[in-house]
Recover the amino acids of this structure.
């Protein structure tokens, strides 16, 4: 699903599942913290993977950009 110029924000806007959207917003907020910890990010990523591994696979490249 990754398109040229797609960002995490744009991806989140496309999500209709409210539980997934909430999880992605939580991830985005954690990543934007100045003192973001790997443990916090990892916990959210694990939850996302367990909830929907397809979305996890689409989001991972957006995070590492």
């Amino acid at each position: 699903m990754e398109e040229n110029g797609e960002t995490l924000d744009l991806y989140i806007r496309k999500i209709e599942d409210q539980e997934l959207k909430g999880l992605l917003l939580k991830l985005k907020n954690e990543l934007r913290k100045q003192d973001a910890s790997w443990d916090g990010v990892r916990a959210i990523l694990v939850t996302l993977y367990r909830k929907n591994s397809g979305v996890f696979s689409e989001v991972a490249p957006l995070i590492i950009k």
Notes: Residues 8-64 form one domain. The helical segments are 8-14, 18-32, 38-51, 53-64. The longest helix spans residues 18-32.
